[in-house]
Design goal:
heterodimer; A: 452 residues; mainly alpha; two-stranded antiparallel ribbon; globular; B: 277 residues; alpha/beta; Rossmann fold; six-stranded mixed sheet; 11 helices; 21% strand; binds adenosine-5'-triphosphate; binds magnesium ion
């Protein structure tokens, strides 16, 4: 009896998962559209803001899913996420950038490889550094991993900035192969200019969809946005692409979790000694989980940054790592659906939300320039004029964002430490574990009956 | 008992007695372990015979659990050797020892609390192909994984039935009572298909009728060639069921013999039995 009701409940939860995702996304998008309409955004403005929103939902969704593999499944405390993202992008950039022209400018060159190959190289190097970091650190006590990963991510950032690696020459031929680039490098504090075809364009070319895509853009130009529609369409399509990649992550990680492999990861999270006593080589499992997660983080970093005009070291500060952690905590570690939703909610409310609200208010009220510093704002407030203070607050919104995140975190810790879906642990098995053939046999039922 | 017969189906295929060594699966020689100033295990040597049920008793703090930890690789001994089925296993990692067929349970049951009873059990079987990541995530190959899981699941349910914890199958292990955890732990250890089981106070907190059934099962398995080393404080249980008893006291082996010999030993009576029997 109790069994059937339990299963019913389980069944229902499974059933509502996609619905929950759709519902949360619908609320977010409707809120953005509605407020955009209320404040009189043009179609172009609307699409731009939605594309931007989708972009951040996509990247934070991906990264939260990858972190869930580390923390939610395996209990690995990785606080160096941004380091693996940075390695992914930088390696991709160096491999894909065209070689410098003879006697070229100050900019460093690259190897001029096709972007697809460069991306694979970036993901591979992120995984490789995951291996390098994990090999020693995962054998130590759990908290050492935290120290090692954060230190690692800072080392990565300082390496990006260092003069030593800013530019170095590559031998003309290595083992008989002529490398296209003569000088490559990390570009130092100035970063790298990503002077290669955009990832979207490269992908569409590879899929032979470039011509249809251009056709679609002209269609949009003729019917919807007369003036230069490419960037808008690019943004929207890239956002959708990111959501599709989130779907792939979700699928990969769900199969990873719902398998004997995932079961061992879960056991390691609960009590590593027990897993060992049952004959599982836990170090191997931890390492595999760590490396896979790092590869996924590297790919996340690539999709976030490789489509920009340039990359600079300050983009890879630890705050990105903590953003991803907040997303995971909001969603609930242990659940893939929760991780994605956490990423979406974080992106919409905490990451993009404040900036969006600021833009809306500015458009709506046309308040003019704010005071230059806090003192002026407070002085005006003293003479009962709130406008300068409001303006000052709005202008500091990106700093305030951190305060808001802190408040939300504290609230969550007090009221819902398990996050939106944290207490829903997906069963770690590739099959339904209910009794084969349904109800128990009569004899067993009688036995069990005695017992109770 | 039909479940027992079925669950025994696989292991009852006799374990091959190829070399003479394996008549003594476990040999412990001069094991020694100190923690700071305390010598928890002091020059302990004993052998456990194949297919036997051997009791390991002694007052609290005698060093019984530490001996288990040394044998199963959870602690490294300061000196001494452990042999299993003729192979030296001293200093091997716990998982390597477990994979050689030496399973153990913990004195304080260690459940994987946020995993269900079923997940706990499914973890145990050896040689799970789906523990290799790529197999579990490659379309097509994953169906092989699922097929093997289905086989394991059948066995899991049989064992759950036998241990009478099938009604708890969907429950999180963290919600089980102390006795139920002990059962789950023993059931899980059995599912690894070991040659030998080290059980640290397996019956503490288990109700008497079930304890009887479990003991019957232990005897059945023993006849099939499984070997047991059991730590237990219940003297009657040990004296009635074990053919051999090792008594430890203050880290040393005080007496090693049949229950009758142990009962008559002056030293043992003085050190341990005096107060209790
Ligand atoms: N990890 C450890 N660190 C320090 N001392 C330890 C450790 N493990 C055991 N000891 C000490 O070693 C001695 C033997 O402990 P052990 O747990 O082996 O006893 P036991 O025979 O299992 O007792 P009980 O019947 O109470 O379970 C005790 O004095 C204990 O305090
Ligand atoms: Mg003990």
């Amino acid at each position: 009896m109790t069994e059937t009701t339990l299963y019913d409940r389980f069944e229902r939860v499974i059933d509502t998962d996609p619905k929950l995702v759709v519902a949360v996304l619908a609320v977010i998008y409707l809120a953005y559209i509605a407020s955009g309409v209320a404040f009189g955004y043009s179609l172009r403005g609307q699409l731009n803001s939605l594309a931007n929103l989708t972009f951040y939902i996509g990247v934070f969704g991906m990264l939260a899913l990858a972190l869930n593999l580390h923390w939610g499944y395996t209990g690995l405390f990785n606080i160096g996420i941004v380091g693996f993202m940075g390695i992914g992008v930088y390696v991709t950039a160096i491999l894909a950038k065209p070689p410098v022209a003879q006697g070229g400018a100050a900019q460093v060159g690259g190897f001029g490889l096709p972007l697809g190959i460069a991306v694979i190289g970036g993901v591979f190097m992120a995984a490789f550094f995951g291996l390098l970091v994990g090999l020693p650190a995962l054998r130590l006590r759990a908290d050492y991993l935290a120290i090692v990963t954060i230190a690692f991510s800072e080392i990565v950032r300082f390496t990006m900035m260092s003069r030593t690696f800013q530019e170095f020459t590559v031998p003309d031929t290595v083992l008989g192969y002529d490398l296209a680039a003569d000088t490559v490098g990390l570009g130092g504090g100035g970063g790298l200019i990503l002077n290669y075809a955009s990832p979207l364009e490269a992908l569409l070319h590879a899929l032979y969809l470039w011509e249809p895509y251009l056709g679609f853009v002209s269609f949009v130009q003729a019917n919807l946005i007369a003036n230069n529609p490419r960037p808008v369409v690019d943004g929207v399509v890239y956002g959708l692409l990111l959501l599709a990649v989130c779907g792939l992550y979700y699928w990969l990680l769900t199969w990873t979790g719902e398998s004997p492999f995932g079961r061992v990861l879960k056991a390691i999270r609960e009590d590593e000694d027990v897993a060992n006593a049952l004959g599982k080589d836990t170090n191997r499992f931890k390492l595999k989980s760590f490396v896979l997660g790092c590869a996924l983080m590297g790919f996340g970093g690539i999709l976030w940054y490789a489509g920009r005009g340039s990359i600079t070291p300050p983009s890879f500060r630890p705050n990105i790592t903590f953003f991803v952690w907040i997303a995971l905590i909001i969603g609930g570690a242990g659940s893939n659906t929760g991780s994605f939703l956490g990423g979406a909610v974080f992106a919409a409310l905490l990451y993009e939300g404040p900036r969006y609200i600021k833009n809306l208010i500015e458009v709506a009220f046309n308040l003019g320039d704010g005071p230059g510093n806090f003192g002026q704002a407070m002085a005006a407030l003293g003479s009962l004029d709130p406008v300068p203070f409001v303006l000052y607050t709005l202008n500091s919104i990106s700093e305030l964002r951190l305060v808001i995140m802190g408040v939300v975190l504290i609230w969550l810790m007090h009221n819902r430490p398990e996050g939106m879906l944290g207490h829903r642990k997906e069963t770690a098995a590739s099959i339904d574990l209910s009794r084969p053939g349904g109800a128990k046999s009569d004899a067993a039922a009688a036995d069990g009956g005695d017992q109770q | 008992m039909s479940e027992a017969d079925e669950s025994a189906g696989e292991p009852s295929i006799p374990i091959e007695d190829t070399d003479e060594m394996s008549t003594v699966p476990l040999e412990v020689e001069n094991l020694r372990k100190t923690f700071g100033g305390i010598t928890a295990v002091d020059d302990v040597s004993f052998e456990v015979e194949k297919g036997s049920l051997t009791g390991l008793i002694g007052p609290n703090g005698a060093g019984k659990s530490t001996t288990f930890n040394l044998i199963t690789g959870m602690h490294d001994p300061d000196s001494g050797t452990v042999r299993f089925n003729g192979e030296e296993i001293t200093g091997l990692a716990p998982h390597e020892i477990a994979n050689r067929g030496l399973a153990r349970t913990f004195q304080i049951a260690r459940e994987l609390e946020e995993m269900t009873v079923l997940e706990n059990m499914m973890l145990a079987p050896k040689g799970q192909i789906g523990e290799t990541l790529w197999r579990s995530v490659t379309p097509g190959v994953r169906s092989d994984v699922q097929r093997q899981e289905t086989q394991h699941l059948e066995r899991v349910w049989e064992v759950l039935d036998f241990f009478e914890i099938d009604h708890l199958a969907e429950e999180y292990a963290g919600n089980l009572s102390g006795g139920q955890r002990k059962l789950l732990e023993m059931a899980r250890a059995l599912l690894t298909d070991p040659d030998m089981l080290l059980l640290d106070e397996p019956f503490a907190g288990v109700n008497p009728s079930l304890e009887k059934r479990l003991l019957e099962h232990v005897h059945e398995l023993r006849e099939q060639g499984y070997t047991f080393l059991i730590v237990e404080h219940d003297m009657d249980l040990i004296m009635e069921n074990c053919e051999r008893v090792i008594v430890m006291h203050q880290g040393r082996v005080l007496k090693d013999g049949t229950p009758a010999e142990v009962k008559q030993s002056e030293e043992v009576i003085e050190a341990y039995l005096g107060g209790e029997v």
